[in-house]
Amino acid sequence: MARTVYCEYLKKEAEGLDFQLYPGELGEKIFASISKEAWAEWQKKQTMLINEKRLNMMDTEARAFLEQQMIAFLFEGKEVDIEGYTPPEQQ
């Protein structure tokens, strides 16, 4: 049976992640309060950010930047700002 969580991003009950995908306290918070659907949305944004800004994931600054973006997106309702990309609902 699927695990459900109250998703902070979607603001509703939704299917939770199968396991913790991110380390530490933040990972626990994501596991407890972010749905599979919201995580998939973040994964798309993360890929666009990495490509757009040519982030090197071996670089601690790049990882810190991505983590800040992830927190803002998942928990603070902020849209990820990707140059040259307009979310479909704003076109």
From TrEMBL:
Pfam families for this protein: Iron_traffic
This protein's UniProt keywords: Iron
GO biological process: cellular response to oxidative stress
GO molecular function ontology, one term from the record: iron ion binding
InterPro entries: Fe_traffick_prot_YggX, Fe_traffick_prot_YggX_sf
GO cellular component: cytosol
Function: Could be a mediator in iron transactions between iron acquisition and iron-requiring processes, such as synthesis and/or repair of Fe-S clusters in biosynthetic enzymes. Necessary to maintain high levels of aconitase under oxidative stress.
Family classification: Belongs to the Fe(2+)-trafficking protein family.
Protein name: Probable Fe(2+)-trafficking protein
